[in-house]
Amino acid sequence: MSQTQQQIEANRRRYEELRAAGQELAPKGLPEPTALGGAPISPDAVIHREEVPPGWYATIRLRRGEALRIVDESGRSSVSLIGWREEDTSERINCADTVKVQWSAAIGKGRVIFSDMGRVLLSVIEDSSGAHDLLVGGSTPASTLAAFGAPGRNTQENFLAAASKIGLDVRDIPPCVTFFAPIALDDAGRFRWQEGRKQPGDFVDLRAEMNLILVASNCPHPLDPARPAAIGPVMLVKHRAAATTTEDVCRTASPEAARAFAFTDRLFA
Amino acid sequence: MSPSDISDAVYICDIPAERPWSRLLRKGQTLRIIDSEGQQAVDALLYCADDKSERYSSQDTLRVEGSAYIDLGTRLISNRGRVMARITADTCGRHDTSAGCCSCESNAVRFGEATKYQHACRENFILELSKHGLTKRDIVSNLNFFMNVPIDPTGNFTVVDGISAPGNYVDVTADMDVLFVISNCPQVNNPCNGFNPTPIRVVVREAPGL
What we know:
The complex is a heterodimer of chains A (about 270) and B (about 210).
Chain A: H1 5-29, E1 46-52, E2 57-62, E3 66-72, E4 79-85, E5 88-92, H2 95-101, E6 112-114, E7 120-127, H3 141-148, H4 155-164, E8 177-179, E9 183-185, E10 191-193, E11 202-208, E12 212-218, E13 234-240, H5 255-265
Antiparallel strand pairs in A: 1-13, 2-12, 3-11, 3-13, 4-5, 4-8, 4-12, 6-7, 7-11, 9-10
Chain B: E1 9-15, E2 20-25, E3 30-35, E4 42-48, H1 58-65, E5 75-77, E6 83-90, H2 104-111, H3 121-130, E7 143-145, E8 168-174, E9 178-184, E10 200-205
Antiparallel strand pairs in B: 1-10, 2-9, 3-8, 3-10, 4-7, 4-9, 5-6, 6-8
């Protein structure tokens, strides 16, 4: 159906307004990164702690309102993450919608991670780093062989193993987000690694906005120039997040986020 | 000579605005996608014909490419790390693979709930993939030919006006037998189609791209 000139102009006007709100207003409202060692978790809020050795993965189930803290204790690790909605695993993390809807490939405290169904999978409620990758993805057999000179454990095979153990398969593995992977683009669109953006103790807190199954893979990012030395353990802390309020920074960061939370809340209404 | 005036064409099809399409592309064949009227995004997915659990992977493609955009020479990489196809001609110069496809659900988040009831690429993909035994599970992050999505050094990520002129084309030459699936994007809420979706033409020929 061909659009009238009036429709075209109205839609362009709305698009420009949304873009200005998304790229000029929303970022100013985002909080500063969490201080290293900040945002302590009360001991009675901790549900489970688990250290994941280099090269390995863990599968974590979160109920809505629970959170996962991922700590890069050595400052040398990167953690690739995928996830599905527990009740219907065809709903899953969607990196493309995450960057497109929020008008930014840079996620950090106050941003959210979307599912493919216009709902919020995870809220980034604490983040000391702000240097994460949604474009390049995790390591593979080939990237690991090239970096280490021998076959080695890698994120692609970790995801496959983890998916298989819950009845899913390679068809269910979506593009991943990788935390503590300071990828940026130069003016020509080439990826570059931002030196100095990783520090021991960097952490993120991810609050589940629906019931989730997550897989976290502790393998060096395929563009990390420190490989093969770039390995260290990561600590996963499953905990109960503080109850959300109407002023919650993730819920109010942008009109898009507010709508996505409204749609997500309907699952639980 | 018009871009679709190809003597060795074995197949030509005009895909109407907003519609899906799919076809088996044999190893060595080249698919030319022509942006007939200009500024029209073409969403595309590739599956290995012999084992459709092997499929196009945007992240693997960008990692191997080393940059955020698709252009002449880009190898399209599968989730098993194999080259499925490559870009062998390109008169546009800018294509995306980070922004995914539009869906009723993401439109509602981006542009307001009223836009939920507008046709979207994911509706096209679901219907077209169902002919091949595939479902929503199989929809991965896709290619967006002729879609201009600059990502600046601060991370700003913006769908902006397309740079493809009427008749611009891109050639994709298959390195293996692939099922090639297209959604001629119906989006009217952002500039990817100039806010007005238009037809495209696809041409298959036996020879590799020019």
